[in-house]
Design a protein that fits this description.
It is a single chain. The chain has about 210 residues and is an all-alpha fold. About 85% of the residues lie in helices and about 0% in strands. It has one domain. Helix 2 crosses helix 8, helix 2 runs parallel beside helix 9 and helix 6 crosses helix 7. The chain is globular. It starts with a helix and ends with a helix. Protoporphyrin IX containing FE binds next to helix 2, helix 3, helix 5 and helix 8.
Length: about 210
């Protein structure tokens, strides 16, 4: 019971990710493997790569905003799922070229919005490869600096998405959330907000 209490959030995240993957595999195997299916799956996996990335960035911002700590336990795994669904997204895109690496590569570099997506994915790959204790130990202070580039990845991912989706509610939410997360990372803003939050709690408690 204690284990379940401690790991409930992690469990929910894993189950949710598995259900998304199951739905994608189900679409892939239950229909004929054609261009339309590949496009549908490319869209769905891209959408979820971005959502996982925003979930991951939200973990730190929720801590700054409200002092909550529980979500910090899933910051790493949500980031890893962004990498995973981003890779699946690229795989489905390559599927539209019958997994021909050369053709996919040329298609990516001849369209700016795709090249931006690739840069975002490369950052996610670097984050995933260095998200272990060994890399943390080897990189020491540089590890934190390196992992701040996840915000740059957020910018590239949202720009890539903006270039595909028409301006609308969904895009507005992505831009709003990313802007909020970036603003909360600015040191004076973070410091001022944290001090205001702490002094509010002191006033409430006394
Ligand atoms: C090599 C890397 C990438 C390639 C080749 C790529 C390719 C594409 C393509 C072709 C579409 C348009 C799908 C369609 O409308 O038919 C798309 C949309 C999208 N991509 Fe990517 N992408 C890449 C990386 C990423 C990354 C890293 C993210 C997020 C973390 C991302 C998030 C999205 C989103 C949210 C959409 C819009 C989905 C929708 O229509 O709702 N992509 N991408």
């Amino acid at each position: 019971m204690k284990w379940l209490k401690q790991n409930l959030l992690r469990l929910v995240v894993h189950l949710f990710a598995c259900s998304l993957l199951y739905r994608m595999i189900d679409v892939a195997v239950s229909r004929e493997f054609n261009q339309d299916v590949m496009e549908t799956l490319t869209k769905a996996s891209g959408e979820w790569a971005l959502k996982w990335l925003l979930f991951s960035l939200a973990c730190a911002s929720l801590h700054t905003l409200f002092g909550w700590r529980k979500q910090l336990t899933v910051r790493k795994i949500t980031g890893l799922y962004a990498f995973f669904f981003g890779s699946v997204h690229l795989l489905f895109y390559a599927g539209q070229y019958r997994f021909n690496v050369g053709e996919t590569w040329i298609a990516i570099w001849t369209e700016a919005r795709l090249a931006i997506g690739l840069i975002a994915l490369v950052i996610l790959i670097i984050m995933a490869m260095t998200s272990n204790r060994w890399a943390m130990h080897r990189l020491k202070k540089n590890w934190k600096r390196l992992h701040r580039t996840v915000y740059l990845c957020g910018v590239f991912s949202v720009v890539h998405t903006l270039l595909y989706l028409k301006a609308g509610g969904e895009v507005f939410v992505y831009v709003f959330l990313l802007s909020l997360f970036l603003i909360l990372r600015i040191p004076p803003v973070k410091k001022k907000w944290t001090l205001a939050r702490l002094s509010y709690h002191v006033r409430i408690d006394t």
